[in-house]
UniProtKB/TrEMBL annotation:
Gene3D superfamilies: 3.40.1190.20, YjeF N-terminal domain (3.40.50.10260). PROSITE patterns: YJEF_C_2, YJEF_C_3, YJEF_N. This is Bifunctional NAD(P)H-hydrate repair enzyme. Residues 223-489 form the YjeF C-terminal domain. K(+) binds at N62, D122, S158. InterPro entries: Carbohydrate_kinase_pred_CS, CARKD, Nnr, Ribokinase-like, YjeF_N_dom, YjeF_N_dom_sf.
Length: 489
């Protein structure tokens, strides 16, 4: 992987980088030659036993890369059969030159019938596809998928949107994908991430300064580099209140476990003090399970308002196991001037009047919302229903509307800021999807907020640390195991 592996460029940004490289005097065909030769080398390395390489050439530069790959494969002595989409005589520029340099006889795409021992090299569309694939391509994808033919995709499996990771009608499921210079959001967003198979990034020689200049930096992968600069410095001598006091609200006596998961996680991630604020009827149930975490009785909004006269109380988690309804809305209203992670029942309590929530938290962002797909749809139904938007688009739109950091949960969790920044998380293992996992995440984010991290960075760091804890806990983890495995960076 190149030293640009930290970047994500949209297809439009990558096209601009290609144009800038050409404008700087770099021979664009030499870049295509390197891309095609890298593809051929990957095909030979990954599939040494292939009986026949089926090279699919599309109508643009992705097809040009495929023609170059076909030429190199033939010169290596491999059996190669070439299929084209559309009229290849209409190719222009580098793609036309690549076709002219390939001596193989072409066939129309619809003529391909899979055979045992085939390996498909997909050079139909790449990352720039912006419309649904044709019936001809859909049928081809169906035949290849049904026959379980291995696919090596050039840039991105054809049928995937490189910006959103969405399937545009149908898409190949690649065993491997080779892309150039840097990744696209569609490589990380679902279902694109799964359909890419194993991803390799190959440096074809565009100077890093040109690539970095073309990257907006608005969308990136969620790694420590995105937020470690705001982590609190570890001091040998510090007061516990300087490391923050996190308050987690407990539900009723029979629903106290979720709050404890959040509280333990907040403590483990470094908060100096953690208190569970519980109804009096739930104090005994909580006390039976707590040692390092304090307890405070709060039955109603009036008691909460009185307690908030202590200005050291600045950071709260509301929602896990709390119950849905007016009490949750009242508590959120009382906390409007503080930092708040609103999760689970807290989010659902505002499903009928989401604007009431957004109006409470204006000014400097201090609210973190952690919706899964269903909760997101309840809070932002119009945005959720817009089929033209990808997950990053939806997360950013929600963040702007709510003036909050949004953690749009899922296998491809996206963290978004009201200022338009978005991070795509990739380190969460599949076994993290377990009951209570979200309670742990809310506590981690709360613990980071309590230590002074801004809302967006606390949310992003929390999601990443959550994934790392899941790796430490291992397969078969429970939420209890996950909370124990939480650790600061």
């Amino acid at each position: 992987m190149s030293d640009l592996s930290d970047l994500l460029l949209t297809p439009a940004e990558m096209a601009a980088v290609d144009a800038a490289a050409a404008a700087s005097g770099i021979d664009s065909f030499s870049l295509m030659e390197r891309a095609g030769s890298a593809t051929a080398a990957a095909a030979l390395r990954l599939h040494p036993g292939a009986q026949r390489f089926i090279v699919l050439c599309g109508p643009g530069n992705n097809g040009g890369d495929a023609y170059v790959a076909a030429r190199h494969l033939q010169q290596s002595g491999a059996a190669v059969t070439l299929f084209h989409l559309g009229d290849p005589s209409r190719l222009k520029g580098d793609a036309a030159r690549a076709r002219a340099g390939c001596a193989l006889k072409e066939q129309e795409l619809g003529h391909y019938r899979p055979e045992a021992g085939d390996v498909v090299i997909d050079g139909l569309f790449g990352a720039g596809l912006g419309r649904e694939v044709s019936e001809e391509v859909r049928a081809l994808i169906g035949r290849v998928t049904e026959a379980a033919i291995p696919v090596l995709a050039i840039d991105l499996p054809s049928g995937l949107d490189g910006r959103t990771g969405k399937v545009l009608g149908a898409a190949f499921r690649a065993h491997n994908t080779i892309t150039f210079m840097t990744r696209k959001p569609g490589h990380l967003l679902m279902p694109g991430r799964e359909l890419c198979g194993r991803l390799e990034v190959f440096d074809i020689g565009i100077p890093a300064r040109i690539v970095r200049a073309g990257a907006s930096g608005v969308i990136a992968e969620n790694t420590p580099e995105a937020w470690k600069g705001v982590l609190p410095a570890e001091l040998l001598e510090t007061h516990k209140y300087k490391r923050g006091h996190l308050v987690v609200f407990s539900g009723d006596a029979d629903k106290t476990g979720a709050a404890r998961m959040s509280a333990i996680s907040g403590l483990k991630v470094g908060a100096g003090l953690v208190t569970i604020a519980a109804p009096r009827a739930a104090m005994a149930a909580n006390a039976a399970h707590l040692t390092a975490i304090m307890l405070h009785a709060i039955d109603d909004e009036a008691e909460l308002q009185s307690w908030l006269s202590d200005k050291r109380l600045q950071t709260f988690v509301l929602g896990p196991g709390f119950g849905i309804g007016a009490r949750a809305r009242g508590f959120a209203s009382a906390l409007a001037k503080r930092r708040l992670v609103l999760d689970a029942d807290g989010i659902s309590s505002f499903k009928d009047e989401p604007q009431q929530l957004y109006d409470l938290f204006q000014g400097e962002p201090r609210l973190v919302l952690t919706p899964h797909e269903g909760e997101y749809s309840r809070l932002f139904p119009d945005i959720a229903g817009d089929g033209a938007l990808g997950k990053v688009d939806k997360a950013v739109a929600a963040a702007r509307r709510a003036n909050a950091a949004i953690v749009y949960k899922g296998a491809d969790t996206v963290i978004a800021s009201p200022d338009g920044r978005a991070l795509i998380n990739t380190n969460a293992p599949a076994w993290l999807a377990t009951a209570g996992s979200g309670d742990v995440l809310a506590g981690i984010i709360g613990g980071l907020l309590a230590q002074g991290l801004p809302a967006f960075e606390a949310a992003a760091a929390g999601v990443w640390l959550h994934g790392e804890a899941a790796h430490r806990a291992g397969k078969g983890l429970t939420a209890e195991d996950l909370a124990v495995a939480v650790a600061p960076l």
